[in-house]
């Protein structure tokens, strides 16, 4: 085989080494996703990186016997280019939507980047693959903790309150939250008719869902103490969230207190 055609060939040892490298780099990213219990984890990232590497190897070296054919034009990027668009189908499977709450975007992006790493490995561009893997791990591990630290006081707080449906219930709770310096981002109320003998004398219950911008945790605690002391409040459930609560089912409130 001529020297000009040698660029279209690869030894079995080099091919195997690139496939192993794809497994290691894809697994390094996947183990981080698996550790944090995300939808696409260790094996998924390995398979994506390994598959992208194999497709790139096929695209470059799989048709070397046709290089010297006069009517054949070899394009090593033609098959591999389909990975860039095709990987979106797998990434979409990692994205979950619950009402207006969307999760899994980071995992979907990591799958897309792992596919790019696999293409680099298959093309013999290992330096770019090393750098990309290192930066990806820094983004997922280090920057994730840094983001949580910086945004710790700017996260939205979800608050669910169950109360007896009185005319002034919502107004008193809103007033209490505002007086304590909490900004109401979103509020949603749901009426629930009484269905037990103990609460048969009540016309209905009122479930109030708030998304609050909390400048400091102590302000929220003070507001909760004041709200808990209101006679019509039956229970409170709070949970830290960074996204909108959207339209989702109401869970039983915690810290519930029974009233005859």
Automatic annotation (TrEMBL):
<keyword id="KW-0472">Membrane</keyword>
<feature type="transmembrane region" description="Helical">
    <location>
        <begin position="101"/>
        <end position="121"/>
    </location>
</feature>
<keyword id="KW-1133">Transmembrane helix</keyword>
<dbReference type="GO" id="GO:0005886">
    <property type="term" value="C:plasma membrane"/>
</dbReference>
<feature type="transmembrane region" description="Helical">
    <location>
        <begin position="79"/>
        <end position="96"/>
    </location>
</feature>
<feature type="domain" description="ACT">
    <location>
        <begin position="158"/>
        <end position="241"/>
    </location>
</feature>
<keyword id="KW-0812">Transmembrane</keyword>
<feature type="transmembrane region" description="Helical">
    <location>
        <begin position="15"/>
        <end position="32"/>
    </location>
</feature>
<dbReference type="InterPro" id="IPR003416">
    <property type="entry name" value="MgtC/SapB/SrpB/YhiD_fam"/>
</dbReference>
<protein>
    <submittedName>
        <fullName>MgtC/SapB family protein</fullName>
    </submittedName>
</protein>
<dbReference type="InterPro" id="IPR049177">
    <property type="entry name" value="MgtC_SapB_SrpB_YhiD_N"/>
</dbReference>
<dbReference type="Pfam" id="PF02308">
    <property type="entry name" value="MgtC"/>
</dbReference>
<comment type="similarity">
    <text>Belongs to the MgtC/SapB family.</text>
</comment>
<keyword id="KW-1003">Cell membrane</keyword>
<feature type="transmembrane region" description="Helical">
    <location>
        <begin position="127"/>
        <end position="146"/>
    </location>
</feature>
<dbReference type="InterPro" id="IPR002912">
    <property type="entry name" value="ACT_dom"/>
</dbReference>
<feature type="transmembrane region" description="Helical">
    <location>
        <begin position="44"/>
        <end position="67"/>
    </location>
</feature>
């Amino acid at each position: 085989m001529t020297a000009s055609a040698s660029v279209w060939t690869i030894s079995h040892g080099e091919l195997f080494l690139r496939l192993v490298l794809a497994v290691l780099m894809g697994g390094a990213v996947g183990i981080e996703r698996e550790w944090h219990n995300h939808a696409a984890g260790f094996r998924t990232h390995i398979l994506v990186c390994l598959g992208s590497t194999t497709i790139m190897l096929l695209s470059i070296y799989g048709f070397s016997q046709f290089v010297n054919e006069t009517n054949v034009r070899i394009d090593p990027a033609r098959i591999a280019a389909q990975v860039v668009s095709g990987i979106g189908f797998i990434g979409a499977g990692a994205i979950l939507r619950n009402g207006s709450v969307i999760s899994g975007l980071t995992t979907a992006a990591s799958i897309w980047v792992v596919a790019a790493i696999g293409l680099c490995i298959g093309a013999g561009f290992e330096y770019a693959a090393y750098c990309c893997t290192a930066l990806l791990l820094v983004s997922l591990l280090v920057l994730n903790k840094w983001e949580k630290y910086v945004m710790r006081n700017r996260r939205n707080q979800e608050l669910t309150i169950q109360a007896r449906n009185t005319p002034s219930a919502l107004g008193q709770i809103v007033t209490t939250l505002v007086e304590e310096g909490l900004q109401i981002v979103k509020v949603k109320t749901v009426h629930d008719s009484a269905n037990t003998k103990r609460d048969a004398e009540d016309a209905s219950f009122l479930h109030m869902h708030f998304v609050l911008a909390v400048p400091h945790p102590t302000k929220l605690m003070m507001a909760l103490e004041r709200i808990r002391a209101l006679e019509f409040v039956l229970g409170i459930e709070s949970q830290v969230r960074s996204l909108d609560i959207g339209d989702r089912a109401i869970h039983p409130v915690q810290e519930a207190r029974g009233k005859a």
